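Below is how a single chain appears once it has passed through the pipeline. First comes the sequence as given, then the structure the pipeline wrote out for it. We keep one example in the README because the format questions we get most often are answered faster by looking than by reading.
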Amino acid sequence: MPIVVSSLNYTYMPGSTQEYKALTDISLTVRDGEFLGIIGHTGSGKSTFVQHLNGLIQPTSGTVSVDGFQMADKKQRIKGRALVGMVFQYPEYQLFEETVEKDIAFGPRNRGLSDKEISERVRESMELVGLQHETFREKSPFELSGGEKRRAALAGIIAMRPKYLVLDEPMAGLDPKGRKDILNTIRLLKKRTKCGIIMVSHSMDDIASEADRIAVFNGGRLERIGTPGEVFADSEALLKMGLDIPQVSRLALELRQRGVEVPEGLFKLEDMKDFLLRRLRRV
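Resulting structure:
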């Protein structure tokens, strides 16, 4: 069953002089196994929205259900929350145990699992995120590189075997290699575990290349939702919202402005290359 969000509204500090409506009438469904990208300018409500998906905060009005579990109900929330793994910005700050193995084992151990099951989950999750078990298990998390710390933190979430994985700017602050490694890890996780991915990102190229659908937030509202081709077909509207667009979409926009008839919804490098080669052959 999917995650279903219906008529979600959220207001920070209601009734105070600092009252601020962060989300207005959000309704969407996260399908089983899909990769949903979430984009929007700073302050558009993206992070507030994803915190509702595992009940970290509760709607001012509206509902959120995870596989049929109503997240407003305390007992059902426990079951729903177990299905949703949350990875915040800079998750390496959540590392605290003396070894990588102990840190990854913390969540499963709190679930009361057997030592055998915990050991299997730790090994499996480390291998999934590209941390060799024998090499890293006894290392202190604080000895790792930035990218390795982030993968260790991600392994701790994966060890809980969530059905949905929520990633809030997972590549923030990483160098190009670290960004590439994390993105490859996310691809592998989706392929191996079949879990649904909900990823907030400012990198339009990452979202364009990975997402099945994209939700665009603007001023606390869900401005639009669709496939990458549908969303990036209207690049000018995204730019007016203060958003970036994929490099290929930017090139397509510039070509159109110069009088070249470029197909709408072109956002992948290979598709642009094919289009340009066909055009050159006609010249």
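The CA atoms of residues 104 and 266 lie 41 Å apart.

See the next section for the split statistics.
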